Predict the 3D structure of the following.
Amino acid sequence: MRVTLVVPTLNEAPSIAHVLRLFRTAAAEANATVFRDDPVVWEVLVVDGASTDGTAAIAEAEGARVVVERRRGYGRAYKTGFALAKGDVLATADGDGTYPVETVPMLVKKLLDEKLDFVTGNRMAYLDRKAMTTEHRIGNWVLNSFVSIAFHRYLRDVPGGRLEDSQSGFWVFRSDVLRRVHLTHDGMGFSEELKLEAILRNVRFVEVPIRYGERWGPPKLSSWRDGVANMLFLVRKRFDVALEIRRGVPVAFASGPEVGLPP
């Protein structure tokens, strides 16, 4: 089996080597223990947004496959990465050191052992207060509350009946999920859209607590600007879901050499 870790980056030179080394060490240990009888082929794919600080070169030196995506957007980077990834299972993390990439191998094992399709991390469970500003915490609470209210009828089959962290970017899922979901957003809203789409398409979905650490380097997000944009997208998504029920299922996102690649 092959697993691809997809990491979008933009000027993450201080942290990217640390992130990739943590993952490589954990992957090697997992192959020597829990996957000893059937070792996993681990691939690291860094989708770099044309960084100017040498991030891409550092990632290549750490053994990652690097593709430069000049089109802007968090979701755009993931669409490109998913189209190029070779894994039967895909995992994601940011390149800033906030997500616990060392736990990816055990989450892959959980996905396989429990016959799940999609595992997403809940940052709110063990949140380091230094990792998120007060404005960011408030914004996440508002967005999570809106998701719980607006999509409550679709969250009934999710363990706990709600999505505790709609904005998390830490996922482990089977690549064939991408053939079932309809993804439209190229920005930060991609994160909430992917999880909601997975739930809407009735994949076997679970949310797990993760530790979310302090970012290496200055933040790139604006809590209020990005929060308002995400809220507007969620409202539009809710209307789209209602329209889909009346009109039929849309064409799902397709992965392949002709889809999602940079020009």
